[in-house]
UniProtKB/TrEMBL annotation:
Gene3D superfamilies: Protein of unknown function DUF881. Residues 1-23, 157-182 are annotated as: Disordered. Keywords: Coiled coil, Membrane, Transmembrane, Transmembrane helix. GO terms for cellular component: plasma membrane. The lineage of its organism: Bacteria, Bacillati, Actinomycetota, Actinomycetes, Kitasatosporales. It comes from the Bacteria. The chain crosses the membrane at residues 60-78. Pfam families: DUF881. InterPro entries: DUF881. It comes from Streptomyces vinaceus. Residues 91-125 form a coiled coil. The keyword Transmembrane applies. This is DUF881 domain-containing protein. Belongs to the UPF0749 family.
Amino acid sequence: MSQPPHNRSSAPAPPARPDASMSLLTHVMDHSLDEGYAEASARREADGTAGLPRTLKAKLALAAGLVLAALVVTLGAAQARIAAPVLAKERQELIDRVQRADEHADGLERDIERLRADVASRQREALKQHGGDQGQLVALLSGATEVQGPGLKLVVDDAKGSSSGGGGKPRENAGFSDTGRLRDRDMQKIVNGLWQSGAEAISINGQRLTALSAIRAAGDAILVDNRPLVPPYEVLAVGDKKRLGTAFQDSADGQYLHALQENYGIRATSSPADALRLPAASSLTVRTATAEEPKKGAS
């Protein structure tokens, strides 16, 4: 009985390599070294030039190169060690110079304060001596002497959590950003309102105000006569304590302060005081105005 012919197409095919589709990557992995480099390496090995030098001359040249490199590194390290004390000495000298300059500036500041106090004292004495019966009153009104009496104590502070950054809506007719901080223009309105309400003498954080006083700003700081103030701002006003407080609250500037409290969170408290003491102004320098001599025969 004859067997059926073998069907070749039905034989199972050999399994394909998993990396058959990555022939280029397989070639790179199997031949990581370029053939040209391999040939050059084999040629050097055949000539005896591969690896470390074998002749005495080559060995001496290599040793000389290593010694030279070590010498350069050693000299660099030695120079750095020598220069380190010099740099430290120069740094200390600079620190000492800065400290001496600071001490000298502090001494000059103390001298300025002493001379300023001496000038103010001489001005007050001159007003008392040459002012006649009105000398004490002139010194009082000009801020050249200390004053005491009843009045109003007003403490104004920035809003809680206020920052120096900008943002928000600008205040109406002020041009300042809504940051919850009291501005120099706000302080000007408060002081003007107190004068208008009948205050006879005013001080802010111990700085006596006069007809020559200026309230300005430097960044976020309020300056009174070029001296920076730190919140909270304590405003003392000598006058009729009952009428002064009521008149200020009813004035336009008092209403302005109330609007700052309601709209911007500015904190303000006022209370009548039986006895307030205001210092004399630190300086009364008149550069342009002169006193007019009384005319003869005038009564």
